[in-house]
Amino acid sequence: MRQETPRLAAVLPPVTDAAEDGDFTMDMVQPERDLTIREMREGEDFAAWLSDLTANDPDAGYTALAEHHLVLTDEIGDWIGGIRFTVRGGVAHVVDIGVVPGERGRGHALRLLEAFEAHAVEDGCHLIEFWTDQLSVEPLLAALGWRRVLTRTDYVGGRPWHLLEKRLSAVSRG
Questions:
Q1: pLDDT tens per residue across span 55-78
Q2: What is the value of pTM for the model shown?
Q3: Does 79 fall in a domain?
């Protein structure tokens, strides 16, 4: 039996009125039964189910979102860093990048970004991107072809964040 998350549980009420001017409104939703929306917990099979449902949906006009991980290991196989990214429709987006504290400042994050870029090119991507709130390495990234395309003030954590991107000459997979 799946347990409900009370703070996100919402039962949709019956809907009665339809929009008169042709615009979509919530009044146009016609529930046939009581429906519940809740947060999913670790260990449930919903992520796989949703991935299967949305995989290569012909109505979407692009391929399904694919999540990837690259790991950086030392000579004995210990994990010292990694990058998590998604690929959809020729765009690869960094979700997370991290290096253990004792290994920082040695260029490992740049190694991971280079490996990410190589993977994106191999996957046929035309654009790579990531959000950051740290611009200290922006001059180095600019020298490597990255550019800031957007700044959002009062974003995550109430701080400014910056979208960096790099256009690629993608090669098709063979």
A1: 767 666 667 788 899 999 999 999
A2: 0.70
A3: yes
